[in-house]
Amino acid sequence: MCIRDRDVVVETPFNIEAAHQCIEDQYHRLVDSQVIPISVGGDHSVTLPIFRALARDGPIGMVHFDAHCDTGDDYSGSKFHHGSPFKVAVDEGLLDPKRTIQIGIRGSVGDPDLWRFSHDSGMRVLYMDELYDMIRTGGVQSVIDEAYRVCGTDLPTYVSFDVDALDPVYTPGTGTPEVGGLSVLEAQLMIRGLGDMNLIGADLVEVAPEYDPTTNTAFVGGQMVFEFLCLLQASLQQRHKIPHQGKMGAIQKLFRTS
Q1: What is the reported pLDDT for 16?
Q2: With 63 labelled, which of 117, 170, 182, 202 sits at a CA distance of 20 to 30 A?
Q3: What is the pTM of this model?
Q4: Beta bridge partners of 83
């Protein structure tokens, strides 16, 4: 097993549908090569073309960390934007809404039905007030257990992490920050608990370093990518019954073989 990094070159950045097609084409090549991708956005619209490649053989489940459900509809004449990728993914048969959990949802909205699609389609929407009730009574493990209840362990599942899931005290460098979010440690513990799932990829999106002169957002984002690397390696170990080497030992071995 080895690690490689690769830039996805988008040749038409000002044409969103052409840009998505460019991303999709390159991810089909990754899937053909049996690569498990960890992707760094970009806004959340980039997850849609990734899904079009990863879910080409059937819908997948998702553990989604975010302040927003991102299941909106048409906006200013387009349905392809960072507030709608998961509605489009369900409509295209890429995402199984009944195997989707959305964690950390909060914030003011101008339309009370903005995230109605999530509820109507059967997604598990875990708003921050309910999440904190769960943590107070059952700890972070209760949230992890709920993710397993929704997504299971056998069918393919993807992890998508928008940095605005975190409270902006940790990650101010993002386009749509919402106060009252997760702490970094809470998010790390939740991610680390997902290793028994059949994970096929992960992404980190909505990091905007130019909005954070402290550079803390980029630092936290980099740590989350490392968490994904450990998580996907743990998932592979579980599926292929590879002897456990400990988190750091396994990752060091991966880098030595790259």
Answers
A1: 83
A2: 170
A3: 0.89
A4: none
